[in-house]
Structures are given as C-alpha cells and as structure tokens.
Amino acid sequence: MTNLDWLKRAAERSTTEHGLMGQVFAAYQTLEDCSANALADELGCDEQTLNMLALCRRPAGETFAEQVKILCSRFGLESFALVNVLRQVEIMGPGHAPASNPASRGGVTLQLAARDRRKNEEPSS
Known about the structure:
Elements: H1 3-14, H2 21-32, H3 36-43, H4 47-54, H5 64-75, H6 79-92, E1 104-105, E2 108-109
Antiparallel strand pairs: 1-2
Helix pairs in contact: 1-4, 2-6
C-alpha cells in the first residue's frame, strides 16, 4: 500500500468520525451533490490536499477564526471558501439538532426562524 493509497483510505474513514473535516466534506458533498474533485476545486486545492485536510479536526468554539486561518495557511486555501463549506454544513447538515429537541422528528431537522414583532402588535398568550 502506497502513501497515497493509505491517505485516501484514511480520508474515507474520516467521513464517519465526528469532529473531523472528513465528516464535514461528506455532508457537504451530499448537500451539494458534488464529487470530491468538485469540492477540491471549490476549495482551490487538489484531491490529495483535500484528503489530508479531511484528517484534521473541524474548527469550532471561540477560536474558530484562528483555527480556520491555520488550516488555510497550512493547506494553501482561501478562508472564505473553507468557511462557506463549514457554515453550510453547520446550517443545513444532518445531525445538528439534539434528539431531545422537539424540532427534530424522525431524523429530519427543522430549523425555525424568529421574527420581530411590530410595535403595535400585542404578544399572544
């Protein structure tokens, strides 16, 4: 098994590991119905770089921007493209609502939006 074969196999396994970029990429590819090659093009890298990136931890928490900057610097990516992929999966991807959340029914996550009330509108009780 060559290093590239090992890398590809590890990247494929990362798609099922919570908290890794491989899982983010798999969700994005499902949402956008695109191939790994198309995702690599969108991020401005080749498929080998995408496979290496898939093994990294997903940026999260208070240092999200710093983590994205480090990943982009390390792999030569545009931060806007990477953040776009991360945020789209965060918003639209499966499994982001806890099972106890009433908005999540049968594996389908419902996302609700709030609206501002007009000043003359009375809140309903």
